[in-house]
Amino acid sequence: MQSLFNELIAELEILRGREDDLVKQAEIAQKHCYNSRVDRNTYLPLDVALYNYDEAMAKLEAVRAYIDEKMELFRKIEILLENANELPARVAYMRDIERLPLTEIAKRTNYAYGYIRLVSAKAPRLKLA
């Protein structure tokens, strides 16, 4: 479950980078709609500029919809990890996602601090978004 969570976080980071690139591309295409000059001697026809803008916006909407789907999956996995019955999963969640100190985790789980420290050392780290 944790490896799926980490892969999902990495995929979301890539998608957010792609979203940023598409936003910049749409901004450039929008500027070309108002100012058709690409460089000193080259002009871009308005229909081509509008087509480029529409295409960039369509790609951006598709990426944002995909990010929304992945975020929904992220939330479901987060809930599963939060409600996990296994102590290592609960400790990893509280340590890495909620960023609680081990003393607080020990209090919440009703285990000794030394035991939580051992469990925490053995539990794999969860990457954060």
Keywords:
single chain, 129 residues, mainly alpha, 2 domains, 5 helices
How many discrete domains?
A: 2
**SSE topology string:** HHHHH
The number of strands is: 0
Beta-strand percentage?
under 5%
Radius of gyration: 23 Å
Roughly how much helix do the residues carry, as a percent range? Answer: over 70%
What structural class do helix, strand and pairing data support?
A: mainly alpha
Mean pLDDT: 85
Give the count of helical stretches: 5
Largest sheet, strands/sense/barrel: none
Report on this structure:
The protein has helices at 2-34, 46-82, 87-96, 102-109, 113-122. It is mostly helical and 129 residues long. The protein has two domains: 1-83; 85-129. The longest helix is centred in the middle third of the chain and has 37 residues, at 46-82. The chain is rod-shaped, with a radius of gyration of 23 Å.
What does this entry show, briefly?
Helices cover 76% and strands 0% of the residues. With 129 residues, the protein is mainly α. It folds into two domains: 1-83; 85-129.
Write the layout of secondary structure elements.
Layout (H helix, E strand, L loop, with lengths): L1 H33 L11 H37 L4 H10 L5 H8 L3 H10 L7
Helix pairs in contact: 1-2, 3-5, 4-5
